[in-house]
Design a protein that fits this description.
Radius of gyration: 19 Å
Distance between the termini: 57 Å
Number of strands: 10
Largest sheet: 10 strands, mixed
Structural class: alpha/beta
Strand content: 15-25%
Shape: globular
Length: 303
């Protein structure tokens, strides 16, 4: 692959790291061994206290494509924002430090992006049990999004947010869409990717999908945030309020209101599943205080 101007890479892979020593080598290796080579791997260590730093430093000596930054245990959202600020690639791809990536992931998504001129390319992925190795479930694009090589977002405004989950990984993104619209991750301990991912879709004009499993998401690592999800459930309301403000800012709120409400209701229900009845009542009282039209509307339906 040819280099971009000023010797910048075609693609930037952004990987936040926090105490990931058990899985970090496998994650880094599966990025560095991609059959597409014209990328930079931006690693942001978020104050790890295990051997993650030693592992990162060993790779820094071996591969000049790696760029390294640190944050002081501020969370994955701020760490990814540091990556965005320092990314030089025409495209951006987010990776987690405990997942595994297919050898053809970048080349498959990049080829699709070039062919379709998509602002965002989304791939299928598989969630697997870290202990047993068993597949738990697959994310596959809905059939309606696979009928054409490229999807014009404006034609699917009523179901757009149904197209993809909120996770930032599994998406190849034109960096200009992120930077020109100042899209960023919130500083939340959970749900920090919700406003980012759906703000991104609200700005995207063309989407494309790769119906091949290219990413393997590791579950049951002992560090999953879902273990204490109930105590952080307010975060979904902060995330949805931020997304609502963003949609109003870019004048897409009315057009995307239906799909936004669907996604918001699904997200709130997912958080409520982790909560006791008293906790749900507490959260509903909290939600009513949010200055959000969608949140107020959804919560009132529970009464």
């Amino acid at each position: 692959m040819s280099k971009m101007q000023n010797n910048a890479p075609i693609l930037s892979v952004i990987m936040p790291v926090y105490n990931s020593e058990d899985y970090l080598e496998e994650a880094i290796e599966s990025i560095l061994l991609q059959d597409f080579t014209d990328f930079e791997l931006i690693i942001i260590d978020d104050g790890s206290t295990d051997k993650s730093l030693d592992i990162i430093e060993s790779y820094l000596k071996r591969d000049s494509r790696i760029k390294f930054f640190t944050t002081n245990h501020e969370g994955a959202g701020p760490a990814r924002n540091v990556g965005i600020a320092n990314a030089r690639g025409f495209y951006t791809l987010f990776a987690d430090a405990d997942d595994v990536y297919d050898y053809h992931m970048i080349s498959s998504m990049y080829s699709k992006a070039v062919y379709t001129n998509a602002d965002v390319v989304i791939c299928a992925y598989r969630k697997f049990d870290n202990i047993t190795g068993d597949s738990l479930w697959d994310f596959r694009p809905k059939d309606i999004f696979l009928k054409k090589d490229r999807i014009y977002a404006s034609e699917y405004s009523e179901i757009l947010f149904m197209a993809v989950p909120p996770s930032p990984w599994g998406k190849l993104i034109k960096s200009s869409v992120i930077k020109e619209n100042a899209i960023h991750f919130q500083n939340l301990t959970s749900c920090n990717d919700v406003a980012f991912s759906y703000s991104l879709l609200s700005y995207a004009k063309i989407l494309a999908f790769v119906n091949t499993i290219l990413l393997f998401y590791r579950a049951n690592t002992g560090k999953n945030i879902s273990k204490d999800r109930s105590s952080q459930a307010e975060n979904i309301f902060y995330a949805l309020a931020e997304l609502e403000n963003r949609l109003k800012l870019n004048n897409t709120y009315n057009v995307l209101r239906k799909t936004f409400k669907w996604r918001a209701k699904s997200a709130i229900e997912n958080e409520f599943k982790q909560c006791t009845v008293p906790r749900k009542k507490q959260l509903m009282a909290f939600a009513k205080k949010m200055n959000s039209e969608i949140i107020t509307e959804i919560v009132s339906e529970y009464e």
